[in-house]
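Problem 3 from the worked examples.
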Amino acid sequence: MTKPRNKPKDASVWDEVTELKREKILQSAVDLFYARGYLPTTMDDIAESIGATKPFVYYHFENKAELLSEIARRTLREWLGVTTRVSEKSLPPTEALSLATQQFTLIVLNMYKLVSIYFREQLNLPKDAAEEIARMRREIDTQVRTILSDGKKAGVFDFEDLAVASQVVTGMVSFVFAWYREPSRLSKDEICKQMVSHVLRSVGTTTAS
């Protein structure tokens, strides 16, 4: 009697190999989009940079727009993950804002090329990706506003307008990509600590609750 193949195991190995190939292509796209820009970069450039054929790249990504969409989605998924996790912890407002700022900043530092590409090339996103990302941005803003609103009600934050305060906080942190470069004079931990201090001052407090 023939022993049946372990299909789940085979499928898992296949999926893992496929994902590694996709990551290699995506990282090449990140480096090229960051250095040259999205529009000047071709699928031929991406294939050449990893020593592969263009059909190999097209097998894993339908087109250049799909690569840009994945870069943008990955950036927003990471940010949304931070605000969601912090919101679920039910922390005091100042502690919640401090933690969200620290983790948000660290993501920008670790993914500054992807973040830069997203902000620079977002007008080139396909409609479906742009709509999905806009939805995630609204969720992030809602969660940040909730933290800020709770802090103002508790008397630990002091700002005039909730919408403006939310934009100041998220803008201050997300635009770290605009000036951060490696190697950096400051460690990532030090940058995160300073960003927390700046954000807390921007909403009228300097101490953790």
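Problem 4, a separate protein:
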Amino acid sequence: MSDMSIGFIGLGNMGAPMAKRLLEWPGGLVVCDMRPDALTPFTDHGARAAATAAQVAERSGVISVAVLDDAQVRTVVTGPDGILRTAKPGTVVAVHSTIADSTAVELAAECAEYGVEFVDAPISGGAPAAHKGALAVMVGGSEAAFATVRAPFSSFASLIVHAGEVGAGTRMKLARNLLHFIAFTAAAESQRLAEAAGLDITELGKVVRHSDSHTGGPGAIMLRDTTSPVAEGDFWLPILTHVRDLGEKDLSLALDLGRRLGVDLPLADQALGALGDGLGVGRGPIAKEQW
């Protein structure tokens, strides 16, 4: 497998640092981007340049795609100069762009007609993780395709998860980003409360980043293999009950502060009512009283 050339299409903010980690790949790297100047840092270090996705496919056994959106992915894979024009049977096409899961399923079916494997392989961790080779990759595809991409993906990722069939990688990325951006919205609500209380919100941000680096943040409670209610006698029952009780207490206190300062905290209010059920242990006394 190490003798196989790797292709990389899309050398933007995420694609470039990912592809850079592949410059030492034993089988060689083939790069393609619409901007000729984006190719120079790679060709200067031994990579081969391709003018089109079809030319990449002529020379590569695994092709990573990191372009903007569904439309660009479709063009790269199935367009007039796309991968499927020249890809050999057994080629694996891996799309790192966050696209619709239905797009991934449709493209996999088209690729299968040519004997080409398709995996949706969205990434998490942002540019800092890409530069460090520490991305998380969520792969949707066959066991065989996953086995093929695992080694090259290890060049730019420190966590590679086989999420399931084609489309599963994208569904996992969407669930992950659901948490991400709801957390951003909650952070904005937290800042409004802190600002109204006369606090320095940048100092608050430092506290949040510091404590989350030790506690794991929201991921710290994502330890069970089901969202069903926690049964009596389950190891997690006392732990998650304790988390609920602390959470309801602190949310109630924050809501009281918000009322006194005239700051509306809709996410905090919703969280007070939903925390216990979300943890699988039901509402605690405070939530029952206030909801």
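Solution to problem 4. The mean pLDDT is 97. The two ends are 59 Å apart (CA to CA).
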